[in-house]
């Protein structure tokens, strides 16, 4: 029993720190607050979730009933029940909790839940609504009417018994669905792949739950949505299986963001349905969700976008830690420390690297960032001082930013490393200054299996083979050195064959030669690969072993293990050829133990690339635009090791977060000079965001370069934009109030909002006003009228200049609860012009307040407008290359290129308020804008030129 208790304790402890899989080198996982919740409150967080499923009532006989959902004891609970009265085909109440946003994109998503013990599902999945397919498909050609959507079922569990067996209680059941409606409008067809044989394709997976069935205890279910074609699944932190998404319709099936759903429902294939007694039994009818966590994968040194006052307070989900991946290395010659490490941090931390000598004295320290999240990285630190010979230890710790040595949170073990000796960085073989016994056979091949080198850096490593050093016991046959990769016991591949040295080239005693004459030999080792040294008493082809062996040996302990082949006559040694296994000769012995007097010296090849992650390539220009593609050209050196990437966002939709909300992605490797972004929509405006990713020892990525413009030709698709007020205030009698709320009360308080809609070029087809109730709840009929004038601002609003009531745009009659986001549908055809004022007043009911643009704790009012853009001709619709802004995010100085001297530049904050800045230089090609005085956050650069307006968004660090 004690062992069982210990196991359960360890199991629960491990589960409490569930986490994403280890990130790829140079990146880290960061918690995405919008799609994460610990469910520790008393009611659902209405800024993230709704308690219904938009557009779907549920699958009969169970419908989604908000009354089943509650937060209790640190869990979100869905208590399934019998409906008090039948509702058409519905007799059972299930529940649906759905994310408000549908911007969840490539990343890791996990949820810890316990299923009910009835024949209803407990689920965790992602989906998005139908949209038209742009471009041709494999099934229907280029049809304008076919539609599609995505569904990613991370886990569907049924804890109760039904006629389908036990798999839904004992395993994680996952699926991917490409949901397709063809041009004829035929019934939707699912193209599915997953391990749920009921709805998927029955793919095999190792998806067993750990320790208990799904209804007995909590289990963690996760997925890594890697790209538009592949998803990996995890259960209880164990890899469960990988799914290649079906490509029957298109080659890139999962390209769109999705929303998240947590749902309990009935299935028509899971019968019998739960009976009345089961639905009334609270011990078995409830699904429990402990938490949901979502993560974005971002570069290791790239700050999370939401910094400063906008950064959410996140739970401490990681057990903070740091550890080595492989062993650190110290290079005396280059004065560098190379480390590969993993860490977990709940907040931004300092990572301090310490180099200690053999007496434990610190001789060097380096502090770098360990930004919030779970990261893995290779880092090279320059020591900057000479090191004497001897052993050293490398230790790293994480601590609070600016923390002292007494505030260490976690640290690595003190791994001991030995700097390379006078022979070079790496030596494989034995000392060569001792004569000994010679082999009696004429033709021999030797591989030293004991004195090897293994790459433990955690990354690939390039080595230059410098020298072949050996002791010649006599002059006679040729001697040929070589290096092999050790694939396993007595299993080798020849990586490099050196130059054969004839008896005329060497002398008895010690000899040192370049490993190869002419072109220097280099080899590249992946992490974990091992190499060994060898030689032949012959040429590489085995010929020439006519006199007798050259390199002596002894058998003194400890003796090396040797792979040996040879014989008494010429050509008995076997032969070698690069890229293949050594070919043995007349006799092969794998158990020989001897110390042969030779060695091969290798050196580390330093990274000589010109990659500098703080510098973007020069010569950025949009070189070509078509209906659906944009080509970006740039200068690029051939030895640049970076990857260059281009992402597309809806115009105005780029908020500084490169990892979410993008509509497209393209990349080019080093040596390229252009990137083409395909599959864009015709006659549509985009923000293009360009950056370079570094490789090798230079971590991080370039700061972002943002370009805006419009593709050409084709059908004009509707666009939607979200605007924040540029002015907002309310009047109480004759007194103006400009605070963090706008109060509304019948006959006493009237609210006023002003919006700049000058950027909308086209007919408005839909308009909605969204606001968040803050500070004071209330009820009643709210009217939203168009104001008859705009001659006011939030500081001078008075009864003398206030807008009079114009057209009634929309109304809403209900109770207004604190924290709730409300939407008023407006009369779209009545909205026009460059600026509009909205007047908000109630007729009856109780007063309430909504968050204003000055409110930092709640969402500001939003005017959501959908419009039909004006169609541009192919000749006129070119991408606007005159609006290039970089770096983005910016710390102190921002550059704006290609803007004429006559252009008017202004900067607005997120609320639409104009802020002060300094222009450091003005010419026809570049303006340097000093934004060092701005606080961290989101801003907009507005450019007015030749009666045209262009807006670029940027982030201030």
Automatic annotation (TrEMBL):
GO terms for cellular component: extracellular region. It is found in: Secreted. It comes from the Bacteria. It holds the Pfam family Por_Secre_tail. Residues 616-713 form the Fibronectin type-III domain. GO terms for molecular function: hydrolase activity, hydrolyzing O-glycosyl compounds. GO terms for biological process: carbohydrate metabolic process. Residues 1-18 form the signal peptide. Residues 15-300 form the GH16 domain. Keywords: Secreted, Signal. InterPro entries: Beta-glucanase-like (IPR000757), CBM96 (IPR055372), ConA-like_dom_sf (IPR013320), FN3_dom (IPR003961), FN3_sf (IPR036116), Ig-like_fold (IPR013783), Secre_tail (IPR026444). Belongs to the glycosyl hydrolase 16 family. This is GH16 domain-containing protein.
